[in-house]
Amino acid sequence: xxxxxxxxxxxxxxxxxxxxxxxxxxxxxxxxxxxxxxxxxxxxxxxxxxxxxxxxxxxxxxxxxxxxxxxxxxxxxxxxxxxxxxxxxxxxxxxxxxxxxxxxxxxxxxxxxxxxxxxxxxxxxxxxxxxxxxxxxxxxxxxxxxxxxxxxxxxxxxxxxxxxxxxxxxxxxxxxxxxxxxxxxxxxxxxxxxxxxxxxxxxxxxxxxxxxxxxxxxxxxxxxxxxxxxxxxxxxxxxxxxxxxxxxxxxxxxxxxxxxxxxxxxxxxxxxxxxxxxxxxxxxxxxxxxxxxxxxxxxxxxxxxxxxxxxxx
Length: 313
Ligand SMILES: O=C(O)CCC(=O)C(=O)O
Ligand SMILES: [Fe+2]
What we know:
binds fe (ii) ion; Fe2OG dioxygenase domain-containing protein; 16 strands; oxidoreductase
């Protein structure tokens, strides 16, 4: 009995030990699997998220290439020619001016950074007296139009007593000088007679921030063709007064070509100019943060639509 009891106890001990050993083996066998499964899962999830992010970036950028990025400094105009649209045929032809060679160009050597900073301060001074309730405000030195709330006022009339504290004679001189240089660069690039190009309206400073639009005037981001929108435009130029990715995010200028988008990243003193027809459909990306300043300086070939340089009233 005793032997049997001992034997029974021994059997029970043995089987529990065997079980433990087996469990140990199973645990040892399964341990590497468990050790690797969590990191492996994380790698798989990470890869999956990576693919999703890549797909989203590719999709949202929609084939977007930088024509000129902020980091580059162009000492010569970078010129891209494109076929002229038929838009100009609907208007009177002015030999030596009406676009026959169309395209776009960007240069950093026409306006200095210091000049652009002075021009930016003109816009800042005037716009802090008014400004749109929405994200886009303008100041037109020619007509005097200044965004104010949901409307516009005439800065020369509205602030008539203070106007000589807002602007100086030198401000207007610099504006004229810069306009002349841009006109020359356009004429050289497109093979035009500079004197056959005239300043036209609207020509204006713009200030854009990320505040949501309150009226349609604030909706600057829509694709458009300047010749269709403004009629008299034959050549559009843009002078940038702030830096993309430093002073503001978003806000890149986008040429919308049939199969791709090409961006110009604003940089203080950078001038971009292009023929105004539908060969240069474009839009401005929404500004995500910060404040973007620019000047739209427009030119026509039709002397009937010419305007004089701005001056004190
Ligand atoms: O500010 C810009 O970059 C472009 C503005 C524009 O498209 C325009 O004034 O017609
Ligand atoms: Fe435009």
